[in-house]
C-alpha cells in the first residue's frame, strides 16, 4: 500500500484513503466540437504510460475529497511530489535530483 | 521417551501433554513441538515426499522444514494440511496425521515411483503423455493429480475467527535472536515505539540453541531473560508466534500472529490468527541465517538432518536426535553440534569433514571427547529403509574419490554452511551482492528505510550478531534523529566459525544415478538440475520452473542456494551471472483466514439497507442485491411465485396505487451561482432555462458519447438542484462530476454534496396516488394546474419537511416523497395505513422494471451496455441540439457513432405470444448456418404485466427503420419470430400521467 | 430554502457494546450542515458568529474543516444557521445533511486501538480536538477525536450497521486480549 | 532435435538421461533478419513459430530483455476460455482454443491443455442477464457455453457455497466445458523449441532500447543492448512494455500498464475439479496438477512497472475466495507474485499494422493474454508475413479508438477477461 502526501491536508496517508485518477495535465479542449477525430482520440485514449516519472492524478476520496496531481516513479512506485490541481507541472530534473 | 535428556532444554516437564499421531497417543511436554515430541520417542519418520513418496523425517527444526509436514486437527472444521511438525506446538487433544501415503506411513504404495525414479526426471511430463490425445484429460492428468498434492484439503467450514489490525511504529525489528535483541535494546527507552517480533513461541533465536554462550558475564539464558524483562519494562512491544510475511511499499510489513493454535482451549472472542499491517518508520531485519544441507546420495533418509537443528532439538527441547550420530560437514558449526550431543551422552560415531584441515581447537575438543575425525572425506550414500542406519564416506584426494567406508549410525548431522535469510529484504526489491568468500548472496541496497543485521548479512557468532544488531539499529535510529553510540557486547564461549561451500559432494557413483536431493519436498536432485541445464535452461528461473527446485512449501529456503551452486557449475558460470530466483511473499505459508481477517460471513462486505428495508423484511419481501444495496424485489403472498406476485403488483399499481421504496437512488445536491451552468454542461439535456419548481429527465454520457447514467433533476431554487442517479451509479456519477468540476471547470462557483442518505424516498404510483397523498400535503394542491407532471416542491408531508416530486417511472400518476432518512419508515407506514382504503400495494424492483418497460423507459445498464448513445436508445429528444458543448457531445460525433446501421432500442412482440429470454440474440435470417449474423439482442423481457401479453425491449441494428418487420430469435430448440414495434406499449399519449384524467 | 431540521431530537444514547477495553455508544442525532465556500470567508465568519477553522482537521465550536472549501457544522439550531448564511453574498453552498449519518462514540482505554481495526492511518498521531474524514473498513467516516480516549465517528446510515458490527466484535476481542 | 515421446524417455532413463540435447540454442544476434520479434513470451515465440512453419519465413529473431517466458506468460493463472460476447472476440479466442486442443501434438511438447471447464458465477440479476446474453451469442457463434442452476454449479464444483444467505449468493453460472487451463511455461518452451528447430534465433537477456526507422519512415531495425540489428520487419509483442518500445518509433498507443497479482496455496490432493471465475468478488480459482490452488486477483488501481503489488488487494482476493469457497479458510497461501498487464480502453487487444511501414504490434491483452496465445500468435504471424490483417484479427486495429468502433467486452458484460 502506497503512502501519499495530500497537498491539501498536508498529511502523508495510506493509499486506502485515495483513488487513482489517471494521467495528469490532459486538458479537455475548450471547444470540443472543433476537434478532429484524431485529436479527440488523443484526448480520450492516448496516454503516456510512462515507465519512470509519471504525472498523474489522485483523489483523496476518503479525506478532503480533492483531486490533485502527483509525480510518481512507476518503476519504484515512489512519489516524487504531489501538488494541487492547476499548479504548474513541476520540473522533473530537479525532482529526480532530490531523490537520487 | 528414551531420547529425552534430563535437565536439558526449555520444555516444562511438569506439564506433560498428550496428543495423537496417526491415531496413536504420544506424550510430550509443554514447550515441545510435534517434531520434538516424536523425536523424543526416537521416531524420525514423519512424512512422504511429493513425487517419489520417499520416507522422510525432519531435516530442520524451524519454519524452513520441508519434510515433516502433517495434518493437524482440533475439532470439527478445525483441520489444516501441510503443517510443519517443527513449528506446531503441542496442546492437549491435538490430533496429527502424516500425509501423502497409502495405506500407511510405513508402507506406501506410491513409493513405486521411487523405484521408477529414472523415468521421472526433470520435465518428464513435457515429453510424454501426449498420445493418444484424449488420454491426457481422462487418464494421465487424473493420475498425476492424485499422486501429487501432499496433504488433503479441509472439507468443512472453519468455525474459528480471524482478525486484522493496523499498527504504526518507529522501529520494527524482525527476528528476536541476538541481533534483534541488541537492536531492540539500542532503540528502547528513547521514547520511541519499538516492536520486536519473532515467529517462534519464544524470543531468543540462536540463544535458545546456544546456552553455553556467556554474554557480558551472564549465561545466555539468564541474559535473555533479563533482556526481555528490560525491554518490556522499557515499553518495547514483543510479539512472539508472529511471522513477518511480506515487506510491501513504504515500509509496510505484513505480519501474522498465531494466537490460539498452541492453547489447550480457545478463549472466547479470541481470533485464531491476526494479520498486522505495520507501517514502520525504520525496519531492522534480523532474521538470521539458514543452514544448508549437503547434497549427496541418500541425504534425505529419516535421521539425516541439519546439525544446527540437532543442536536446537537438544538444547531447546532436551531431545537427542540420535544416540549414535555421525556428523558430516563442511563448516565448523557442526563440530559444536557433535560436542553438544556428545556432552549429552550420545556416542558420536565420527565427525567427517570435507575439508582437509580444520581449526586445532576443534580437533583437540573432538579428541578430548573421543570422537573419531575424518578430514578430507565426502559422503556417497546412506542406508536404512525408514531410518538411516549407516553413512558411507570416502576419502577424497584431489579429484579422486577413494574407497567407501560404512559408518553405522542412527542419525546423520550435516552442515553445508549457512546462508542469510534474505526473503523480506528481497521483497523490498533490494539488491543482492554476491560474496565469493561466503559463497552466498548478501544484502546490498534497498529503496526502503531498512537495515539488516547479524547473520542476515553474513556475520557469524553471538558476539558479532549482538554488536551488529546494536550498530545497525543505531544507524536506523539516526534517521529518526537519535544520536548515541552503539552499545558494545562481549561474549565468551562464543562459537564463531567458517566453512566451505560445495555443489553436490564428490562421489564414486555414476552421477546420473545418484539420488542427491536439493529440494527435498519436491524430490529435485542434483542430476535433475544438471539435466535442465543440458536441455537449454540457462536462467535460474528456467531451471527452477523446469525442475520445480525451490517451489516447495519451504519456498526454496533449503534448496535455492544449493540449486544455484549446482546450476552455475553446470553452466560454467559464476553464480551472480546465473542469478537467484525472486523470493515471493509470504515468508512462510500463511492461512487464508489470516488474509481474510474479519471479512468473512456477516463481516465480509457491507450490505446497505434503506430505512424502510426492515418493513419490507417484516412483510415478506424477497430481495435482490443491487450494487452494495439489497432491495426488495417483490412481496409474495402465500403461495405466490415471482411471476404471480409481480403480475399482481403491476395490476394493483395500474388499477389504484402502489408504493415503492426508491431510497437507494443516488442523490446529489448541486448548489451555487453556477449550478445551472454545471448541470447543463454535464447532462445532454438543456438545463439553463429549467424553472424553479420544475424537474427534467437527464441523460449523462461519458466524453466518448456513450450513456453512463440517467436520472431526474429538479430545480429547488435558482442556485440549487437536486440530482438523482441510478442506484448502482451514485458513487461513480458523483466522482465523475467532481472530476469535471475540480479539474476542468474550477472556475465555476458550485458545490456538490451527496444527499443519497439524507433522504428516504417513497414513490407512490397509480391513478389514486394523488388522492392518497393529498390529505398529507395541506400546503399544496395536487392538481394538474398547481403541481403538474415534472414538478417539485419543498412542502410538509405528514407534518415533516419534505421534497415532493411529481415524476413517474411507471406511466402512472407518480409522486416521490423525500423525507429526512430516519423519518422514512414512519411516513411509509402512515401512507400504508392511509392507502388501505385504496388497496395500496407495496411493490419491488421487479414490478418497477415491468411497469417502466411497458412504458418504454430504459434502465441504464440493462437496456444500455456502455456502447449505446442517446440516439441508439431512441432518446435523441434528450440531447440539447442548441448546446455548444456538454460531456459526450464530441464523442457522439465520432465516425462509428454516427454511422448507419447502429443498434437501436425498439420494442418486440412475439408472434406466438411467448416470452423472450433476456439476452436472447436476434437474427434476420433464421436459416443461416452457424456462425450466424446477429443483429441485436433482447435487453428486457417480461411476462404478462398489464399489457396482457409478453413484451420485450431489444437493441437491433437499424431498429428504428425496421418498425413492423419480423425478426427471429433462435433458441436451442426452436426459433421465435417477433415483430419490431415501438418501445412504448402502454399509454403512448401519456394520458394516464394526468391527474383527473385516469381516475 | 426550507431548513429540514425538525429531526427527532432527544433520543437516548444506545450502548452497542461495553467492555473493559472500550465502550461503543450510538449517540443522539444533532443537526448537521455541510458548508462549502472559498475565497475570503470573513462574511461567513460574521454570519456564523465565529471564525470557521481554516486548516483541514481544525474544529471550532463543533464545526470541523474537512476540506479546503468544506466544513461540517454541528448545531442545535440549524434554522438559525441557515437563515444567517442566506444573507451572505459570498458564493457558498449550505446543505442540510442531518439525516445522513449516525454517530458512534468510542470511549475507553483502548479506543484508539479499536479504530486500528479499520483505519489504516496512524490514529495515535491524531491530535485531540480535531476531526477529519477517513476510511474505516472501506467505509468513509468522519472521525472526531475529542480526547485521548474518546472518539466519535459519523457514518452514513446504510453503512452504520456494518461499522457497528465490526466495532462490537473488535471491542470484545480487545477485552479478551486484556483478560 | 530429439522427438519427445515415451520411448525416448524410457531409452534416456536407462542411460542416465545423457541423451537429451538443448531444447533451443542460446543465440547471438546476426546483423540482419527478415523479421525481428520484440518479446519472447508465448505470443512472440508463437508468432516466430508460425512465421517459420506456415509462412516459410525463418530468418527471424525473437529478442527479449530477460529470459523467455519470464513475463506474463510465466506469471498468469493459465485460464483458457472463449465464451466472449462479441463476434470478433469469440472468433479470435475460439480460434485459439481450436489450436490449444492440438498444441501438445503440434509442438511435440506436452503443454498440458486441461479441458476441465470454466464456470463463471452469476451473483445478481444483472450477472444473470449478462451471462444469458453471452450464452445465446456464443451458441449462435458456435462457441460452447451453457447455463447452470446453483445446484448444478455445486454439482460441477463441490467446494462452492451456494447458500442463499451468502453476501454474493450464487444465482447460477455460465459453463464452458471446452475451456480449461494449460501449463504456462511449457507453452513458451514448446514454441521456443519448435521455432528454434526451424531456424529462429532466440536472443535472451538483450533489451531492445529503440526501434529505428529509415529516412522514408519505414522500419530499419532495432537498437539493442548488443548493438543495432537490421530488420525488414519488426513485430512488437512486449505486453506491459509495449508502449515504451513503440514510443521510440513515434507510435503512441492507447495502453496503460497495471500491476496484476496472483497467488497459489500449498499443494493438496485433488479437491477442485474446474476453473471458477467470480467477477463480482474479483477472483478466479483453479487447482494446478501439482495440487496448488491457483488464484488470480484484480489489478491494483494505479499504473506501475514495479511488479510489486499491494497487500490490501491480496487480502480482498483471499477473502473473496474464502467467501465463495468457505472450506478453504484454513488453507495456506504459499506465494504470490505480480505481473504487468497492458490494458486498452475497451479491454480488447490490438493486433495490427501500424502507421510505420514494416512495424506491427500485438498488445493490449490486459489480464486475458494467455488464453489467446496460439490464436494471437497464429494470426499475428499472418499479418506480419502478408502485411495485411488476418480475417480474424482484422477488427482488432488501432484505428478503432479513433472511429469509436470498439470491441468493448468489459462495458458490455461487466465481465473481466
From TrEMBL, chain A:
One of its GO terms (molecular function) is sarcosine oxidase activity. One of its GO terms (biological process) is tetrahydrofolate metabolic process. InterPro entries: SoxD, SoxD_sf. Signal peptide: none annotated. Pfam families: SoxD. This is Sarcosine oxidase, delta subunit family. The lineage of its organism: Bacteria, Pseudomonadati, Pseudomonadota, Alphaproteobacteria, Rhodobacterales.
TrEMBL record, chain B:
Residues 170-434 form the FAD/NAD(P)-binding domain. Signal peptide: none annotated. Residues 492-511 have a biased composition (Basic and acidic residues). Pfam families: Fer2_4, GCV_T, GCV_T_C, Pyr_redox_2, SO_alpha_A3. Its EC number is 2.1.2.10. GO terms for molecular function: aminomethyltransferase activity; methyltransferase activity; sarcosine oxidase activity. Residues 514-597 form the SoxA A3 domain. Gene3D superfamilies: 2Fe-2S iron-sulphur cluster binding domain, sarcosine oxidase, alpha subunit, N-terminal domain (3.10.20.440), BFD-like [2Fe-2S]-binding domain (1.10.10.1100), FAD/NAD(P)-binding domain (3.50.50.60), Probable tRNA modification gtpase trme, domain 1 (3.30.1360.120). Residues 903-987 form the Aminomethyltransferase C-terminal domain. Residues 614-883 form the GCVT N-terminal domain. It is an enzyme of class 2 (transferase). Residues 487-512 are annotated as: Disordered. InterPro entries: 2Fe-2S-bd_N, BFD-like_2Fe2S-bd_dom_sf, FAD/NAD-bd_sf, FAD/NAD-binding_dom, GcvT/YgfZ/DmdA, GcvT/YgfZ_C, GcvT_C, GCVT_N. Keywords: Methyltransferase, Oxidoreductase, Transferase. One of its GO terms (biological process) is tetrahydrofolate metabolic process. Belongs to the GcvT family. This is Aminomethyltransferase. The gene is gcvT_8.
UniProtKB/TrEMBL annotation, chain C:
SUPFAM superfamilies: Folate-binding domain (SSF103025). InterPro entries: TrmE/GcvT-like. This is Sarcosine oxidase, gamma subunit family. It comes from Tropicibacter naphthalenivorans. The lineage of its organism: Bacteria, Pseudomonadati, Pseudomonadota, Alphaproteobacteria, Rhodobacterales.
Automatic annotation (TrEMBL), chain D:
It catalyses: sarcosine + (6S)-5,6,7,8-tetrahydrofolate + O2 = (6R)-5,10-methylene-5,6,7,8-tetrahydrofolate + glycine + H2O2; sarcosine + O2 + H2O = formaldehyde + glycine + H2O2. The keyword Methyltransferase does not apply. The keyword Nucleotide-binding applies. It comes from the Bacteria. One of its GO terms (cellular component) is cytoplasm. It is an enzyme of class 1 (oxidoreductase). Its EC number is 1.5.3.24. InterPro entries: FAD-dep_OxRdtase, FAD/NAD-bd_sf, Rhodanese-like_dom, SoxB. Its cofactor is FAD; FMN. This is Sarcosine oxidase subunit beta. It comes from Tropicibacter naphthalenivorans.
Amino acid at each position: 500500500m502506497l503512502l501519499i502526501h495530500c497537498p491539501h491536508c498536508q498529511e502523508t496517508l495510506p493509499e486506502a484513503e485515495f483513488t487513482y485518477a489517471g494521467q495528469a495535465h490532459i486538458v479537455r479542449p475548450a471547444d470540443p466540437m472543433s476537434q478532429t477525430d484524431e485529436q479527440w482520440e488523443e484526448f480520450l485514449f492516448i496516454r503516456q504510460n510512462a515507465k519512470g516519472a509519471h504525472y498523474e492524478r489522485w483523489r483523496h476520496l476518503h479525506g478532503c475529497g480533492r483531486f490533485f496531481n502527483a509525480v510518481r516513479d512507476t518503476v519504484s512506485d515512489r512519489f516524487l511530489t504531489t501538488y494541487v490541481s492547476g499548479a504548474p507541472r513541476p520540473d522533473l530534473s530537479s525532482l529526480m535530483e532530490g531523490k537520487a | 521417551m528414551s531420547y529425552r535428556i534430563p535437565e536439558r532444554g526449555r520444555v516444562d516437564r511438569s506439564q506433560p501433554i498428550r496428543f495423537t499421531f496417526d491415531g496413536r497417543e504420544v506424550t510430550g511436554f509443554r514447550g515441545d513441538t510435534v517434531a520434538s515430541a516424536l523425536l523424543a520417542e526416537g521416531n524420525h519418520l514423519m512424512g512422504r515426499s511429493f513425487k517419489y513418496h520417499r520416507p522422510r523425517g525432519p531435516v530442520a527444526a524451524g519454519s524452513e522444514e520441508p519434510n515433516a509436514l502433517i495434518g493437524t486437527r482440533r475439532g470439527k472444521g478445525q483441520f489444516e494440511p501441510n503443517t510443519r511438525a517443527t513449528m506446531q506446538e503441542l496442546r492437549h487433544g491435538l490430533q496429527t496425521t502424516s500425509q501423502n501415503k497409502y495405506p500407511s506411513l510405513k508402507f506406501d504404495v506410491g513409493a513405486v515411483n521411487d523405484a521408477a525414479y529414472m523415468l521421472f526426471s526433470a520435465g518428464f511430463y513435457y515429453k510424454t503423455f501426449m498420445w493418444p490425445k484424449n488420454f491426457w484429460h481422462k487418464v494421465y492428468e487424473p493420475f498425476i493429480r492424485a499422486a501429487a498434492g501432499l496433504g488433503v484439503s479441509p472439507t468443512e467450514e472453519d468455525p474459528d475467527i480471524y482478525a486484522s489490525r493496523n499498527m504504526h511504529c518507529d522501529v520494527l525489528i524482525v527476528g528476536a535472536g541476538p541481533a534483534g535483541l541488541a537492536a531492540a535494546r539500542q532503540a528502547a527507552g528513547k521514547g520511541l515505539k519499538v516492536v520486536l517480533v519473532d515467529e517462534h513461541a519464544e524470543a531468543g533465536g540462536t540463544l535458545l540453541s546456544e546456552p553455553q554462550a556467556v554474554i557480558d558475564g551472564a549465561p545466555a539464558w539468564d541474559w535473555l531473560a533479563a533482556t526481555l524483562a528490560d525491554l518490556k519494562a522499557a515499553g518495547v512491544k514483543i510479539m512472539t508466534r508472529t511471522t513477518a510475511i511480506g515487506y510491501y511499499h513504504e515500509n509496510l510489513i505484513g505480519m501474522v500472529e498465531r494466537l490460539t493454535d498452541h492453547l489447550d482451549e480457545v478463549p472466547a472472542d479470541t481470533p485464531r490468527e491476526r494479520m498486522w499491517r505495520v507501517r514502520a518508520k525504520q525496519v531492522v531485519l534480523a532474521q538470521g541465517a539458514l543452514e544448508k544441507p549437503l547434497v549427496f546420495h541418500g541425504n534425505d533418509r529419516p535421521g539425516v538432518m541439519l546439525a544446527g537443528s540437532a543442536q536446537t532439538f537438544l538444547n531447546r527441547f532436551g531431545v537427542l536426535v540420535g544416540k549414535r550420530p555421525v556428523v558430516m560437514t563442511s563448516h565448523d558449526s557442526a563440530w559444536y553440534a557433535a560436542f553438544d550431543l556428545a556432552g549429552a551422552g550420545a556416542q558420536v560415531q565420527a565427525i567427517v569433514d570435507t575439508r582437509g584441515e580444520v581449526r586445532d581447537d576443534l580437533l583437540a575438543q573432538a579428541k578430548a571427547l573421543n570422537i573419531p575425525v575424518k578430514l578430507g572425506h565426502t559422503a556417497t550414500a546412506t542406508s536404512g529403509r525408514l531410518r538411516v542406519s549407516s553413512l558411507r564416506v570416502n576419502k577424497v584426494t584431489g579429484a579422486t574419490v577413494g574407497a567407501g567406508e560404512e559408518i553405522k549410525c542412527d542419525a546423520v548431522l550435516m552442515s553445508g554452511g549457512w546462508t542469510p535469510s534474505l526473503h523480506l529484504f528481497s521483497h523490498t526489491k533490494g539488491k543482492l551482492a554476491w560474496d565469493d568468500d561466503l559463497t552466498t548472496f548478501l544484502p546490498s541496497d534497498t529503496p526502503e528505510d531498512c537495515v539488516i543485521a547479524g547473520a542476515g548479512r553474513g556475520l557469524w557468532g553471538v558476539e558479532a550478531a549482538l554488536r551488529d544488531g546494536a550498530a545497525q539499529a543505531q544507524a536506523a535510529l539516526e534517521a529518526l534523529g537519535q544520536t548515541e553510540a552503539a552499545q558494545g557486547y562481549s561474549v565468551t564461549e562464543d562459537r564463531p566459525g567458517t566453512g566451505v561451500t560445495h555443489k553436490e559432494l564428490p562421489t564414486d557413483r555414476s552421477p546420473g544415478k545418484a539420488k542427491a536431493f536439493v529440494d527435498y519436498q519436491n524430490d529435485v536432485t542434483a542430476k535433475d538440475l544438471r539435466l535442465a541445464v543440458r536441455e537449454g535452461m540457462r536462467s535460474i528461473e528456467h531451471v527452477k520452473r523446469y525442475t520445480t527446485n525451490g517451489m516447495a512449501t519451504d519456498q526454496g529456503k533449503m534448496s535455492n542456494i544449493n540449486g544455484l551452486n549446482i546450476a552455475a557449475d553446470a553452466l560454467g558460470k559464476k553464480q551472480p551471472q546465473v542469478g537467484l530466483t525472486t523470493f515471493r511473499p509470504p515468508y512462510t505459508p500463511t492461512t487464508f483466514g489470516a488474509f481474510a481477517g474479519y471479512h468473512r460471513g456477516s463481516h465480509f462486505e457491507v450490505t446497505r439497507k434503506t430505512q424502510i428495508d426492515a418493513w419490507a423484511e417484516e412483510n415478506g419481501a424477497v430481495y435482490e442485491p443491487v450494487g452494495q444495496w439489497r432491495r426488495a424485489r417483490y412481496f409474495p403472498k402465500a403461495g405466490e411465485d415471482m411471476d404471480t406476485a409481480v403480475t399482481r403488483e403491476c395490476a394493483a399499481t395500474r388499477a389504484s396505487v402502489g408504493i415503492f421504496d426508491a431510497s437507494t437512488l443516488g442523490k446529489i445536491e448541486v448548489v451555487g451561482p453556477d449550478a445551472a451552468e454545471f448541470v447543463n454542461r454535464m447532462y445532454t439535456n438543456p438545463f439553463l432555462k429549467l424553472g424553479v419548481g420544475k424537474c427534467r429527465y437527464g441523460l449523462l454520457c461519458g466524453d466518448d458519447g456513450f450513456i453512463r447514467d440517467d436520472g431526474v433533476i429538479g430545480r429547488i431554487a435558482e442556485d440549487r438542484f437536486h440530482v438523482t442517479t441510478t442506484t448502482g451509479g451514485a458513487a461513480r456519477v458523483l466522482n465523475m462530476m467532481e472530476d469535471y468540476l475540480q479539474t476542468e471547470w474550477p472556475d465555476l462557483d458550485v458545490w456538490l454534496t451527496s444527499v443519497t442518505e439524507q433522504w428516504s424516498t417513497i414513490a407512490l404510483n397509480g391513478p389514486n396516488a394523488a388522492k392518497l397523498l393529498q390529505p398529507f400535503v395541506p400546503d399544496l394542491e395536487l392538481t394538474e394546474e398547481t403541481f403538474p407532471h415534472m414538478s417539485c416542491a419543498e412542502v410538509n408531508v405528514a407534518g415533516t419537511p419534505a421534497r415532493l416530486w411529481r415524476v413517474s417511472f411507471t406511466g402512472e400518476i407518480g409522486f416521490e416523497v423525500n423525507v429526512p432518512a430516519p423519518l422514512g419508515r414512519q411516513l411509509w407506514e402512515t401512507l400504508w395505513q392511509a392507502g388501505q382504503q385504496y388497496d395500496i400495494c407495496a411493490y419491488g424492483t421487479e414490478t418497477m422494471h415491468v411497469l417502466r418497460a411497458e412504458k418504454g423507459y430504459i434502465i441504464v445498464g440493462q437496456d444500455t451496455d456502455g456502447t449505446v448513445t442517446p440516439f441508439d436508445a431512441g432518446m435523441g429528444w434528450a440531447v440539447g441540439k442548441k448546446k455548444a458543448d456538454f460531456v459526450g457531445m464530441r464523442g457522439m460525433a465520432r465516425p462509428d457513432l454516427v454511422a448507419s446501421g447502429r443498434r437501436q432500442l425498439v420494442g418486440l412482440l412475439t408472434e406466438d405470444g411467448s416470452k423472450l429470454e433476456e439476452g436472447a440474440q436476434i437474427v434476420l435470417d433464421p436459416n443461416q448456418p452457424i456462425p450466424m449474423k446477429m443483429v441485436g439482442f433482447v435487453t428486457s423481457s417480461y411476462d404478462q404485466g398489464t399489457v396482457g401479453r409478453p413484451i420485450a425491449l431489444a437493441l437491433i441494428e437499424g431498429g428504428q427503420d425496421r418498425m413492423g418487420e419480423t425478426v427471429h430469435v433462435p433458441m436451442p430448440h426452436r426459433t421465435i419470430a417477433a415483430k419490431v414495434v415501438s418501445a412504448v406499449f402502454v399509454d403512448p399519449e401519456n394520458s394516464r400521467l394526468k391527474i383527473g384524467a385516469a381516475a | 430554502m426550507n431548513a429540514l431540521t425538525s429531526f427527532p431530537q432527544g433520543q437516548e444514547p444506545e450502548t452497542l457494546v461495553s467492555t473493559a477495553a472500550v465502550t461503543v455508544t450510538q449517540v443522539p442525532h444533532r443537526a448537521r450542515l455541510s458548508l462549502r465556500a472559498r475565497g475570503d470567508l470573513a462574511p461567513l465568519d460574521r454570519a456564523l458568529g465565529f471564525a470557521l477553522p481554516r486548516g483541514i482537521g481544525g474544529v471550532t465550536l463543533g464545526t470541523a474543516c474537512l476540506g479546503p472549501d468544506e466544513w461540517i457544522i454541528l448545531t442545535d439550531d440549524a434554522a438559525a444557521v441557515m437563515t444567517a448564511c442566506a444573507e451572505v453574498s459570498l458564493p457558498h453552498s449550505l446543505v442540510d445533511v442531518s439525516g445522513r449519518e449516525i454517530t458512534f462514540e468510542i470511549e475507553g482505554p483502548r479506543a484508539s486501538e479499536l479504530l486500528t481495526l479499520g483505519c489504516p492511518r496512524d490514529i495515535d498521531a491524531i491530535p485531540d480536538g480535531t476531526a477529519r474524514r477517513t476510511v474505516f473498513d472501506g467505509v468513509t467516516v468522519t472521525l472526531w477525536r475529542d480526547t485521548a480516549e474518546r472518539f466519535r465517528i459519523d457514518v452514513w446510515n446504510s453503512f452504520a450497521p456494518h461499522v457497528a458490527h465490526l466495532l462490537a466484535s473488535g471491542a470484545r476481542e480487545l477485552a479478551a486480549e486484556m483478560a | 532435435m530429439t522427438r519427445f515421446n515415451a520411448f525416448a524417455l524410457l531409452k534416456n532413463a536407462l542411460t542416465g538421461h545423457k541423451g537429451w540435447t538443448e531444447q533451443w540454442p542460446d543465440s547471438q544476434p546476426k546483423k540482419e533478419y527478415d523479421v525481428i520479434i520484440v518479446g519472447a513470451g508465448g505470443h512472440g515465440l508463437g508468432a516466430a513459430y508460425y512465421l517459420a512453419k506456415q509462412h516459410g519465413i525463418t530468418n527471424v529473431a525473437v529478442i527479449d530483455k530477460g529470459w523467455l517466458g519470464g513475463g506474463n506468460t510465466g506469471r498468469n493463472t493459465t485460464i483458457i476460455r472463449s465464451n466472449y460476447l462479441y463476434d470478433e472476440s469469440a472468433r479470435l479466442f475460439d480460434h485459439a482454443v481450436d489450436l490449444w486442443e492440438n498444441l501438445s501434438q503440434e509442438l511435440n511438447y506436452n503443454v498440458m491443455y486441461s479441458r476441465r471447464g470454466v464456470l463463471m458465477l452469476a451473483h445478481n440479476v444483472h450477472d444473470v442477464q449478462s451471462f444469458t446474453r453471452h450464452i445465446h451469442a456464443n451458441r449462435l457463434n458456435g462457441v460452447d457455453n451453457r447455463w447452470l442452476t446453483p445446484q448444478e454449479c455445486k454439482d460441477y464444483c463441490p467446494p462452492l457455497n451456494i447458500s442463499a444467505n451468502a453476501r454474493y449468493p450464487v444465482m447460477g453460472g455460465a459453463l464452458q466445458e471446452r475451456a480449461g487451463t494449460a501449463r504456462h511455461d511449457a507453452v513458451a518452451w514448446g514454441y521456443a523449441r519448435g521455432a528454434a528447430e526451424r531456424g529462429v534465433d532466440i536472443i535472451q537477456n538483450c533489451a531492445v532500447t529503440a526501434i529505428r526507422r529509415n529516412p522514408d519512415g519505414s522500419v530499419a531495425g532495432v537498437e539493442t543492448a548488443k548493438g543495432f540489428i537490421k530488420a525488414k520487419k519488426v513485430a512488437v509483442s512486449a505486453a506491459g512494455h509495449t508502449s515504451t518500445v513503440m514510443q521510440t518509433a513515434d507510435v503512441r498507443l492507447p495502453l496503460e500498464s497495471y500491476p496484476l497479482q496472483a497467488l497459489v496455496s500449498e499443494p493438496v490432493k485433488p479437491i477442485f475439479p474446474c476453473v471458477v471465475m467470480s467477477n463480482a468478488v474479483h477472483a478466479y480459482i483453479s487447482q494446478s496438477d501439482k495440487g496448488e490452488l491457483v488464484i488470480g486477483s484484480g489489478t491494483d488501481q494505479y499504473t506501475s512497472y514495479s511488479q510489486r503489488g499491494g497487500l490490501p488487494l491480496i487480502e480482498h482476493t483471499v477473502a473473496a475466495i474464502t467467501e465463495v469457497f468457505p472450506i478453504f479458510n484454513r488453507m495456506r497461501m504459499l506465494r504470490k507474485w505480480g505481473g504487468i498487464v497492458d490494458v486498452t480502453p475497451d479491454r480488447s487487444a490490438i493486433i495490427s499494422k501500424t502507421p510505420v511501414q514494416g512495424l506491427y504490434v500485438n498488445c493490449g491483452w490486459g489480464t486475458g493474454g494467455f488464453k489467446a496465445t496460439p490464436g494471437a500468435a497464429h494470426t499475428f504471424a499472418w499479418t506480419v508475413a502478408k502485411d495485411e490483417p488476418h480475417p480474424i484479427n482484422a477488427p482488432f486495429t488501432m484505428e478503432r479508438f479513433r472511429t469509436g468502433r470498439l470491441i468493448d467486452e468489459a462495458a458490455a458484460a461487466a465481465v473481466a477477461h
